[in-house]
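Give me structure tokens for this 286-residue protein.
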Amino acid sequence: MRRHRADGTDPDSHPMTVVHEPPVLLDIDASAGIATVTLNRPAALNTLNPALSKALRDVVSQVESDTAVRTVVLQGAGKHFMAGGDIKTFQATLEASATDRKRYFERFIAEVHDTIIRIRRMDKPVLASVRGAVAGFGLSLMNSCDLAIASDDAYFTLAYRNIGASPDGSGTYGLPRAVGVKRAMEMALFGDRFDAARALELGLVNRVVPADELTQATRAWAMRLATGPTRALGRTKRLINDSLGQSLANQLLAEQDAFAASAAERDFIEGVQAFVDKRPPVFSGT
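Here you go.
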């Protein structure tokens, strides 16, 4: 298991040096092909500030391009996933002029939106593992992932209205597609809090497990994804994500191209032969 800071250095290389924990941790289990990205501001409920935003973008960019990584797990350190934006950071902007404050948040949000785009486009599954607070941008971030497992103590809210703001992080894109327009409107316009059972009912998470089983359940799903036909799974992800903006004819052409591309790869040969041999396939991700 390799642990990295967001700058790629090894925190264990200088054991006598006092190291301030970075806002995002990256652990790569190279033997399993699993990268675990951990939001690491537990004392602040992993709320989003500029340092976390930059580190998250850098780490997501790194795992996106790392060919050894076959699936990504996104989680929060401590008892919470992410309780939205860091209000103390927001408060520090209140003395600025309206123009300067507007420009500040345009830059800040552009950076986190780059991260959302990278998560959605990367050709490997991203699994959110959430507990505790999943609020504001935390809810948008979870919803941008391909799959989500929640502990039964998780709670959710699209809380932007409480600070006089509108959603970001693709919340207004992903939520109507996940729960329907009327329910997305209710979540956004009222900002009410709801529990994990309701999130499961709405289709925002795939599974809810007892809090003490979250790590084990997440690992099991991550292993299933990482031992799958990586390139074919990436094409499947892209097909589903693009489908709502496609005509039927264009979607059928995309499916044709994706299947044909998969058929040219080693994992297709292995999958077909394993089926004929009546044995489990051993995919290499190639």
